[in-house]
Amino acid sequence: MSNDSLQAQIEAATGYEDLPVPALTQQWAERVLDAAQIRSGDRVLDVACGTGVLARSALERVGSSGSVSGIDPGLGMLQVAERLAPTVEWRQGSAESLAYANQSFDAVVSQFGLMFFADRHKALQEMLRVLTPGGRLAVAVWDLLENIPAYATEVALLNRLAGEDTANAVRAPFQLGARSDLEKLFGEAGVSSVAIATHKGTGHFPSVKIMVEADLRGWLPVMGIFLDEEQIQSILVEAETALDRYVTAKGSVEFDVSAHIVTGLRS
């Protein structure tokens, strides 16, 4: 990988950490860890760790007697994660081929990554492989796009102004939102005692501009889509009207979001 390519990945990962993480994903970390019953002394693996928001929270729970590892295919994501939490053991790698020995962890967690795995069935089997017998699994995925109207509105706007590929990149996180699909996937992968809990949360951005920029400048580059500045400015102008219903009296943006946390065990 060239230095320029790596630097672009680091910049995209930094944008992701600075914008979507505090506004959307950070609030789910404690819920996922609760679902996985993470406690002092546990050995925890965070799959598709990104910039490490879930792993950092896990580190606080397991204490000095436990350990946390994080794995992600994105070198830029891992560079940011390492900077923020150098005591976590970070590795580059895919969910479908976890670079760990059998029965290495008491718990495996993953937050908003399963939707993007090339082979979800294989990834879940790998998570089971590295768990100890009776080990706990907890995976968070976003609800259906239709149940999160603010993002449905943004996706429609992007489809009109930037094309289907751009819209699909923002639509992608919501592709596993059907509970029936999750039940089938986890069951076929061999996960025991599967349970799905749907949780409500709140998206909170300082403004419409920052909300949409989080995708245009943070998420889309992570997905390999780079819009020119003229396109970005055009989208931002129209977004002010399209998303006006979510603007508070103070000018910030708030909207309902929901996610499923799927739990299970290695039998």
TrEMBL record:
Residues 44-135 form the Methyltransferase domain. GO terms for molecular function: methyltransferase activity. One of its GO terms (biological process) is methylation. Keywords: Methyltransferase, Transferase, Ubiquinone. InterPro entries: Methyltransf_25, SAM-dependent_MTases_sf. Gene3D superfamilies: Vaccinia Virus protein VP39. SUPFAM superfamilies: S-adenosyl-L-methionine-dependent methyltransferases. This is Methylase involved in ubiquinone/menaquinone biosynthesis. It comes from Rubidibacter lacunae KORDI 51-2.
